[in-house]
Request: fold
Amino acid sequence: MPDALERLLEDFEVLDDWEERYRHVIELGRGLPPFPEAERTAANKVSGCASQVWLHDWAETGPEGPVLRLQGDSDALIVKGLVAIALMIFDGRKLSEVAALDARAIFDRLGLSEHLTPQRANGLLAMVARIKADALRLQSA
Reply:
């Protein structure tokens, strides 16, 4: 598990209530690097999200084969934090392992599945589906 994701899981264990966790998720979103304006395209927009979400991905050569690289953004603070969590899960992973990752298990471990509105939970799953589909596309390219 990547270090950033492991730290996030540890942080969530320490935070007692969901208001603190929501604030932490928002801070994660604020910590994302600026998203390039040139990447705010219809092709990079994630469908299935109530808020606007953009994901830009590419493959990069890693020591053990090609890895997935991701950038993301949203126009909603909490959703931007969810984008940050999705990036923690998938960014830097080998393309060949992305499809098998069980992001829902990580969301359950964080408690996100039970504390997000159905609309936000569906949007988060749409992000995951998009990331996995893009990783397969990059792998076969």
Summary: The beta strands are 53-62, 65-74. Residues 118-140 form the longest helix (23 residues). Residues 59 and 138 are 6 Å apart (CA to CA). The mean pLDDT is 92.
